[in-house]
Design brief:
153 residues, alpha+beta, 2 domains, three-stranded antiparallel beta sheet, 3 strands, globular
Length: 153
């Protein structure tokens, strides 16, 4: 009933129905996803990725599906001058809501995860494992406008 009441476009309705069944959303989660325009952020925009060129077809489609543009973190109540460490701490505090925003099949593995490569230390802001893709997903938090050099990181 929520989908029929809030959405007129039949293809959009069908998309939300499929996502609700796939992810086991409750009514409240469904309402949140509709109000945060998940369809517009996830289903509509063509993402600028290299997934189709670098992954097998099945994995490419799953990887493309898990990306949203942009993610909505309005549940954190942070101002625009937030620092990356403050953003990270707030996300950890609100992990349940954060995982719902990411979507289904994510497992949180850690924050400031240490890697040593060529005797250099690196720290991953947030490390997840995507169960369906069977791969790690690293989130490197950046606050502010997008810069092209962020793409390769």
């Amino acid at each position: 009933m929520v989908i029929l009441d809030k959405i007129e476009d039949p293809s959009k309705q069908l998309w939300y129905i499929k996502k609700t069944v796939q992810n086991g959303w409750s009514r409240n989660v469904l309402v949140h996803q509709i109000e945060s325009n998940l369809y517009e952020r996830q289903a509509l925009p063509e993402k600028a990725t290299n997934f189709k060129n670098t992954l097998p077809a099945a994995r490419s489609d799953l990887a493309q599906e898990m990306i949203k543009d942009p993610y909505k973190f309005d549940f954190l109540s942070l101002d625009e001058e937030v620092k990356e460490l403050e953003l990270e701490k707030a996300l950890i505090t609100h992990m349940t809501k954060f995982l719902l925003e990411l979507g289904a099949s994510f497992a949180f593995l850690g924050r400031q995860y240490h890697l040593e490569i060529d005797k250099k230390d690196y720290y991953l802001d947030l490390l997840f494992y995507h169960v369906k893709l069977r791969c790690y997903v690293v989130i490197d938090l950046k606050v502010g406008d997008f810069k092209p050099e962020y793409t390769g990181k």
